[in-house]
Specification:
The protein has about 550 residues and is α+β, with helices and mostly antiparallel strands. The protein has eleven helices and 23 strands. Helix 2 runs antiparallel to helix 4.
Length: about 550
């Protein structure tokens, strides 16, 4: 394109030079006033002096020295010739200018940013010791690549067994301390006094005692009544057996004598015999009732139940402890169980050896960690970087920041090997780089990482930032800029230069998207526009 511009300029200059020469040769003949002045002053007729050269003219002038004005006239002639030359030059400038053009058409433009960055892992895991034990084997060193499931290090199993026994004993001791607060009997009886205070237990015991006493009184009273009935029946029986008459008027001695006589007398009347049998049956019934009366038995059962409750309440009362002591002991037991059960769980896991949780690279091992060294719980053993989660961190300048966005695709090259990437994070806080320029940290995730990746090396990244299809695209060099904005010169239909203000969208180092100001089919002037002005007549140079 620049060669065509230079060629075009050479053609224009050659045309101007030819016109100047032609105008200079005809300067004298084209100015009648100058010819007449020369003829009057020197006597030389310029119209018939076409064959004279400069020397002949000089000789002729010299012969007419008497004309003193010849020098003045010659000066005037020189001025006129010079003025005419200047006029010719201006005419040459106003000659028609040839320009090159390019038709406006639709195309595609994409802004690809090239920014280098550092390869890092998106996940770094520190392995800490969950137990206190010596390290039996350390199977890796810094820089080693390991696969998921590989054993990183192991502990001394005898030390782990001892630690597990100590944890189990600690739980057993805590349980013993808690159970010692309660007697075995009292512990079983606590349900009878659940939710009751010591005073409430005492009140209930007193109430039970009163109920038992009342029932005992009922039993005693009824027994007394039955016993009295039994006594009366026995006396009646004795009277009948003695004399067959139960008048109750005989004394004790008389009663005995009659009974003895009755025994000897087998002629007792039948009626007396029947009466005696009836009384004897009544005596048997009353005697049975005295020992088996249902009501008295119910009262006895109630007394038994009340006495049992009273006994349990008394036991529960004796088993009661200070609430504060009980709560503290229970809390100690629960805390010990939680802590030591967790310790036992970790010890059992440690016995299996510590294995890698993902494919990665060992990036750090403290100097104090070595085989045979005893590590305490919480000691950092090693650090691993995840090879399955790889990212590249870059710093984006203020000018490029508007061009990037989340999800944009990135072509990544690491150690000469291509990878696919995607922008996953753009920091909301700018920082200063080493040169003091404000930059924004941005993370590119590697979508297809492999074991060939080395952390810490530089990666070349080509971000597919802005892109537009079916849009007007021009080489950036055709776009001019002044105080009012961006514009281009186009060839109008009437053959003149026309300025069109434009709005630039996506821009690259070579091209610009024109979002406003131009239409498909417009002819943009592509040749040197430094000498062009709006409205100037130009001619489109034919395509070579």
């Amino acid at each position: 394109m620049s060669e065509n511009k230079n060629k075009n300029k050479d053609i224009q200059n050659e045309t101007v030079e030819k016109e100047v020469v032609q105008n200079t040769e005809s300067a004298v003949t084209a100015a009648p006033e100058v010819s007449n002045e020369i003829k009057e002053t020197t006597g030389v007729d310029m119209e018939v002096y076409d064959d004279y050269d400069a020397t002949d003219l000089a000789d002729s002038v010299k012969k007419k020295k008497r004309f003193k004005k010849r020098y003045v006239v010659l000066g005037v002639v020189a001025l006129i010739i010079a003025a005419y030359i200047i006029y010719s030059l201006n005419a040459a400038k106003n000659a028609v200018v040839m320009v090159e053009t390019q038709d406006v058409a639709l195309g595609t433009i994409e802004n690809v940013l090239s920014i280098s960055g550092t390869v890092q892992s998106g996940e770094t895991k520190n392995y800490y010791s969950d137990v206190t034990a010596p390290i039996a084997s350390l199977n890796v060193k810094v820089g080693d690549k390991v696969s998921e499931g590989d054993e990183l290090f192991s502990y001394d199993t005898e030390a782990l067994d001892l630690a597990q026994k100590n944890a189990e004993l600690a739980i057993k001791q805590a349980k013993g301390n808690y159970n010692a607060l309660y007697s075995p009997v009292g512990t079983a009886d606590r349900k009878y006094a659940e939710g009751m205070s010591a005073q409430q237990i005492n009140d209930r015991i007193d109430a039970i005692t009163a109920e038992i006493d009342a029932l005992n009184n009922k039993i005693t009273e009824k027994k007394n009544r039955i016993s009295q009935t039994l006594t009366d029946l026995q006396k009646t029986a004795m009277d009948i057996n003695q004399n067959g008459v139960a008048d109750g008027t005989l004394g004790d001695n008389d009663y005995l004598n009659r009974r003895e006589n009755d025994n000897n007398n087998s002629d007792m009347s039948e009626s007396n015999r029947q009466m005696s049998l009836a009384v004897q049956q009544s005596i048997q019934d009353v005697t049975y009732a005295l020992n088996n009366d249902p009501e008295m038995q119910e009262w006895s059962n109630q007394i038994t139940a009340l006495k049992e409750e009273q006994t349990h309440l008394s036991s529960a009362k004796a088993a009661q402890v200070n609430p504060g002591s009980a709560s503290a002991s229970k809390a100690t037991l629960e805390s010990t169980q939680l802590t030591q059960e967790d310790t036992i769980s970790k010890i059992e896991a440690a016995k299996e050896g510590i294995k890698a949780e993902f494919d990665g690279v060992v990036t750090a091992i403290p100097a104090t960690v070595a085989e045979g060294a005893t590590v305490a719980t919480g000691t950092q053993i090693l650090t691993m970087a995840n090879l399955e989660d790889v990212q590249v961190t870059i710093q984006v300048s203020k000018s490029d920041l508007p061009k990037i966005s989340m999800g944009q695709k990135v072509d990544i090259t690491i150690n000469g090997k291509p990878y696919n990437g995607e922008i996953t994070k753009i920091s909301g806080n700018a920082t200063k780089n080493a040169n003091g320029v404000a930059v924004v940290d941005t993370v590119i995730k590697v979508l297809n990482p492999d074991s060939d990746i080395i952390f810490g090396v530089e990666a070349n990244n080509k971000i597919h930032a802005q892109k537009a299809d079916n849009t007007i695209v021009l080489p950036y060099e055709y776009v001019q800029t002044d105080s009012t904005g961006d514009y281009v010169y186009v060839l109008a239909a009437d053959g003149t230069v026309q300025r069109k203000d434009v709005v630039i969208g996506i821009s690259t180092s070579t091209d610009a998207q024109i979002t406003e100001g131009l239409e498909v089919g417009d002819k943009v002037i592509t040749s040197d526009v430094s000498t062009l002005t709006e409205g100037m007549a130009v001619v489109e140079m034919p395509v070579q």
